[in-house]
User: Which sequence fits this backbone?
């Protein structure tokens, strides 16, 4: 089943999907989350998606990561607020709050800062990719250290990559 958020649309009409209603729901729930985050500024909303079946999926993160306990706390607070608002008749909704996980792309500058020193794979707007270690982050770009070749023939260089040239960035786990 297709997931909906305010940045993406179903490729076909669904009897359960009315764009204006779904967008309004996303905005209302986002406002509740932002209200909760006022008390916890080291945490932030990464993404909010609502399926036509009223399954609300929220990814949150923190400057120092986010624990399962903190996700549970946000889930309980948010669930209570949504129930009090009465947006879903007879409580016909489900709510999931979790961290984005390592497989989800980085979306915010704060996430890049948290991943300094880690290996990243960058997918550029032109479809090419580059893998390397994240060395620095600014508001406009990142500095990626790459190594070409092996052994004595290995050449290390640093690439300054503007965010404007990046389509997606994912963290790579090295063992």
Assistant:
């Amino acid at each position: 089943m297709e997931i909906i958020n305010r940045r993406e649309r179903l490729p076909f009409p669904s009897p359960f999907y009315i764009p204006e209603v779904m967008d309004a729901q996303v905005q209302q729930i986002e406002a509740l989350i932002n209200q909760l985050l006022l008390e916890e500024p080291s945490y932030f909303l990464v993404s909010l998606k609502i399926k036509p079946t009223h399954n609300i999926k929220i990814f949150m993160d923190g400057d120092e990561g986010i624990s399962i306990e903190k996700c549970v706390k946000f889930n309980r607070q948010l669930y209570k607020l949504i129930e009090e608002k009465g947006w879903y008749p007879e409580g016909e909704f489900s709510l999931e709050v979790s961290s984005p996980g390592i497989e989800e792309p980085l979306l915010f500058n704060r996430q890049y800062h948290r991943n300094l020193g880690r290996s990243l794979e960058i997918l550029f707007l032109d479809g090419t990719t580059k893998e390397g270690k994240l060395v620095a982050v600014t508001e406009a770009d990142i500095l990626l250290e790459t190594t070409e070749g092996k052994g004595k023939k290995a050449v290390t260089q640093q690439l300054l990559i503007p965010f404007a040239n990046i389509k997606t960035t994912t963290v790579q786990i090295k063992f």
Summary: Residues 19-98 form a domain with the GMP Synthetase; Chain A, domain 3 fold (CATH 3.30.300.70). The chain has two domains: 19-98, 109-172.
